[in-house]
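testing teh design pipeline on a random one, pls ignore if ur not involved
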């Protein structure tokens, strides 16, 4: 019995940063792709003072550069030249510097709107990618040889049949829910308060991670002499600081962060969201893969979320590209063996990063005086031991573990096989 003809090789559900970056990776291969996104790309605009930003690790920058996307982002990306790690009220400081690690930058800060706009604009030049936006998944059903989907949009319903469906639709993934894949949630009982500021002392590319008994405070360098602050607080405390006026809020943040960048001057519009760690109980199902936050949604400490998603993307694209080469172009992107190969590759990195971020939060949350002294000694020793510092630097830069070709600056397919 012959297989039912499919409308596309791959359907990507979710056209945020993860879904659009994945579409660009798959555009390097001879695959017909449909990208489904609930929001209209036309709603995007240039960044303002208050826009949220994403920290791109060194390895993530390489992935975007290898995909030909970095030129559109580089002018709006602020390099991170150093990271300063400390604990409020304790001695001991750890520093990671790009020049000591032999790289031009440990990472980059880019506004989400700049990143999203650049990714969507470049999709217009990609071959064999169809975008449906605004549109959303209404239902899906898996079969041995394909997945059937119903997509709702302004012009009514559209039925699709794909060989592979990739869930890039976030922590509250509809794809995951429709497949009855369980999600394990760790509620930190905290909220992140996010705000952009200007400082008295220029940041010069310096990033700061300061741990307090309430939670970490990250201050990250942005273009235009700005910094992005991510302040983690218990629920009640976060609600309280959100009610403060700008002057009171600036002073409260100053009291926690200190004066390493002088006085906080201009304080932008604040945003707040609840913090949880959400882990999917499975990364793959019949002809389906979960990537990014749909697979693993992390606490923002150390800024690992989107970087982990980009490694998911690079690994999945590599597995599919290798299969296409090995099969002389007759590969099935939804084949179980391929999805299991991807799962076996990614599960260790995801678990390592999840344990790393979760461990940081738990380790610095204990108020014990003795443990506080131990943490201070640990930070001091870390700053003096090159091997320990190099290990954390590689984790922070997204260069730890098995790296996909894109993260090493190598193309997915040899030139003779490119489209």
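output:
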């Amino acid at each position: 019995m012959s297989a039912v003809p499919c409308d596309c090789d791959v359907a990507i559900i979710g056209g945020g940063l993860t879904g659009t970056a994945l579409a660009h990776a798959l555009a390097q291969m001879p695959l017909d792709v449909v990208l489904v996104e609930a929001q209209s790309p036309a709603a995007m605009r240039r960044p303002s003072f208050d826009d949220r930003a994403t920290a791109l690790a060194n390895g993530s920058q390489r992935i975007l550069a290898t995909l030909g996307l970095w030129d559109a982002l580089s002018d709006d990306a602020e390099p991170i030249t150093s990271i300063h790690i400390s604990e409020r009220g304790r001695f001991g400081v750890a520093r990671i510097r790009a020049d000591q690690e032999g790289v031009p930058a440990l990472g980059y800060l880019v506004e989400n709107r700049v990143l999203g706009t650049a990714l969507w604009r470049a999709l217009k030049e990609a071959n064999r990618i169809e975008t449906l936006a605004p549109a959303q998944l209404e239902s899906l059903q898996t079969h041995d040889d394909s997945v059937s989907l119903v997509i709702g949009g302004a012009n009514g319903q559209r039925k699709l049949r794909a060989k592979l469906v990739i869930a890039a639709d976030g922590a509250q993934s509809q794809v995951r829910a429709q497949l009855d894949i369980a999600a394990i949630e760790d509620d930190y009982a905290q909220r992140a308060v996010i705000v952009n500021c200007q400082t008295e002392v220029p940041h010069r590319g310096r990033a700061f991670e300061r741990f307090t008994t309430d939670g970490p405070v990250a201050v990250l360098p942005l273009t235009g002499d700005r910094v992005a602050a991510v302040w983690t607080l218990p629920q009640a405390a976060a609600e309280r600081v959100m009610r403060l006026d700008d002057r009171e809020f600036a002073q409260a943040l100053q009291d926690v962060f200190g004066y390493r960048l002088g006085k906080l001057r201009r304080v932008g519009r604040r945003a707040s969201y609840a913090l949880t760690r959400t882990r999917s109980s499975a990364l793959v199902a019949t002809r389906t893969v979960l990537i990014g936050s749909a697979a693993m949604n992390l606490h923002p400490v150390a800024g690992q979320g989107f970087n982990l998603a980009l490694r998911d993307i690079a690994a999945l694209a590599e597995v599919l590209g290798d299969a296409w080469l090995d099969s002389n172009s007759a590969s099935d992107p939804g084949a179980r063996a391929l999805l299991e190969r991807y799962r076996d590759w990614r599960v260790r990195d995801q678990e390592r990063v999840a344990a790393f971020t979760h461990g940081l939060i738990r380790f610095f949350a204990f108020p014990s005086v003795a443990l506080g002294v131990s943490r201070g000694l640990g930070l001091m020793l870390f700053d003096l031991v090159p091997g320990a510092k190099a290990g954390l630097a590689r984790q922070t830069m997204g260069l730890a573990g098995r790296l996909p070709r894109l993260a090493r600056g190598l193309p997915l397919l040899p030139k003779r096989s490119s489209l």
